[in-house]
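On clarity, I found the account of how folds are encoded harder to follow than it need be. Since the whole study asks how a given chain folds, the encoding of that fold should be made plain. For illustration, here is how one protein appears when written out as sequence plus structure tokens:

:::
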Amino acid sequence: MKNQTALSTALLAVVPVLCLPVLVAKVQAAPSTNAATTTAKPAAAKPAASAPSAATITIPAGANPIAATVNKDKIDRLDLERMVVAARQLNPALNGDTPAAKAAVQTARARILDNLIDNRLFYQEAVRRKIVPSPAAVDQQIIEFKKQVGGDAAYLDFLKTGGKTSADFRRIVVEQLAINELSDRLKADITVSDADVNAYYTTHADEFQVPETVQAHHILLRVLPNASAADKAKARARAEDVMKKVQAKGADFETLARQYSEDPSAVRDGGNIGLFAREDMPKTKAFADAAFAANKGQIVGPVETELGYHIIRLDEKTLAHTAPLDKQLTELIRAVLLKQKISQMLETTIAGLRKTATIKTNL
């Protein structure tokens, strides 16, 4: 396989039917592209019920032990419930005794079962097309997976806790490799032409708008939030004095910033605050207004903000514009369109497979 490590990682997500806690820990530790967020905990909130462990999963009394049949293949209810547990361990919103939490679990269960059915249909299609992974590829993938879970002993514990055997896991790897190969074949003929890119760029121009930006240096004379009128007057007088110095013939703004600015970064970078858009300065609107109103090379101030008094030198100004369709943007659009086309192709394929399949669910 072209990317064994990627497939091993995929198996950690695909094999929650084994659902060892180490699986959940690995998934939770995976890096995210989303910005980190924190959620405040209500002072008097009732603790939510925690998800059961994989070792305690049982089928409810009276429930069908077969969650679904897909043509002649069966999907075990225990495998489904193990995946539901994995989802609950990853998503606190699925835990609790409230009607909303219970409804969310049931929705998650139905969605997971749909995914299992889709996987089964894709594997059946791979079998129909006579796609059979080589034993060597299967062996190598299992070796890679063992490394990820911590070696042979951890691998055996993984299987034991999930109620699976080595033969079960080998079958899962065979199926996943076959599905991946089928996916690769289906995607092989999908391309995005230059015409596709140009059409998207033209019809989605609003997505490529670059706001007006400026680059500036500043000198800050701080004023404390609780400063008296007299203290503010003194600070302004100092700012006006520094303003005269920077406007003097031959004055070096960066040197004066290091000498007079009370911005801690001034010593390091001579008051350089870099490139910014107007919306980047929501708490110092007066600063942004003054900077964007200035001309290149102009020094303005003192400008009062909640931080104190600023003397600003405008270094560069770039007007709002549409980003040019250069090589980098072209490839970015191409990647987005390719992902969309692949997604549409897979949705169409699975819809076709479902249309001709005999599927029965027992939720």
